[in-house]
TrEMBL record:
Keywords: Membrane, Transmembrane, Transmembrane helix, Transport
Full protein name: Neurotransmitter:Na+ symporter, NSS family
Any one annotated GO CC term: membrane
PROSITE patterns (alphabetical): NA_NEUROTRAN_SYMP_3
InterPro entries the UniProt entry points to: Na/ntran_symport, SNS_sf, YocR/YhdH-like
CDD domains: SLC6sbd_Tyt1-Like (cd10336)
Compartments, record wording: Membrane
Membrane topology: Multi-pass membrane protein
SUPFAM superfamilies on file: SNF-like
Organism of provenance: Alteribacillus bidgolensis
Amino acid sequence: MSNTRDQWKSKIGFILAAAGSAIGLGAVWKLPYVAGTSGGGAFFIIFLAFTLILGTSLLLAEFVIGRKTQKSPIQAYKELAPGTPWYWVGILGIISSCLILSFYAVVGGWILTYFVRSLTGGMTNPPTGDYGMLFGSIISNHWEVGIAHLAFIIITILVVQGGIQKGIERASSIMMPALFVIFIILVIRSLTLDGAMQGVRFFLQPDFSKVGGDTILFALGQAFFSLSLGVSIMVTYSSYLDKKESLVRSASSIVGLSILIAFLSGLAIFPGVFAFGLEPNEGPSLIFTVLPAVFSEMAFGGVFLSLFLLLLLFATLTSAFSLLEIVVSSAARNQPERRKAAAWIGGLGIFVLGIPSNLSYGVLSEWFVFGNTFFDNIDFLVSNILLPLGALLISFFVPLKMKHQDLKEELLRGSGLGEGFFRSWMIMIRYITPIAILFAFLDVLGVW
């Protein structure tokens, strides 16, 4: 029986894979529509501050846990806090990842369907001229979205079963550079549209009159969501990282790439929305109803729509890889011969778990719990309860259960930084980060 643990082939491979996990629907889909309803540039500034300060501190906390133990989350927490129930943080992360991927793959299926339709001309000038109606007809067609849902999961399984180097790192090393190239093309095209500067001003010029308590909480949640924090994904990814690599430099690169993508996303989307007189506050349907209408009005719009959907598909897949990897890593337990079976059993199990979400806009569209569809309930449970709970527990775990010297050595190794940086980080992770998460968490629960 082999017990050789896989590792990232290179530092850049790790950074691209971890950034790919972070750069998913949160950056390309969620951030633009939340910014559109929350003051544009004001929201982005608040999001930027939370990402740089709170997000980075929590990202480093997960890195320290993973790299120190070089084990999957459950085993990592058991090693660091033996004989205690802290390993449930790892279990919570696995449960959360399964639930996220269960509905995330549904949206991935929608994107895959749109992409295929864009290549075959099925997205230009719908018969009714109404892209909202087209979106509704697609997601209510349970056969079409069901096949696309399964196809998305199978692609994810095929990559993850290949392991860290030959699977996730290889795929991320192709998809992430391609994602950046496509983004640059789209930004250039968007900025050359007549009236584009109005969209740029909306995105970059802050309107603090629209900032309220909800805006700040949305920005905090977006900062954590956009870095894949709170579900121990980064514990898993960093467990494959060589001991000689600097955690601080890696975290800085990942945070920087995440912010850059969020910035490019706004520059790609808002100029086009404003150029054609559409509203930026369309909500979650922005990329499925508003943007196809925008692209349809452009010269070579079909080509740019296909490029945008390919970008979105890459971003969604790289996040899906990390969500399935935490499950596979825990099941395979450092035994490579178990990885393939773990990937297929875990992936197909998550597919079955996602079927009710897939049918939430079809045959189960009238089946409501707490006034929401199954899809919306799973999204709320994960995004508003499990993610902040996991982030809160990790922020408690690191200063309480890990040895001070171990934290210092692991954090500063190879960084060239000194005691001052470590003390600042400890203040952030011990006091400021958990208080901020707690405020957001209690607000979601309606405590005040």
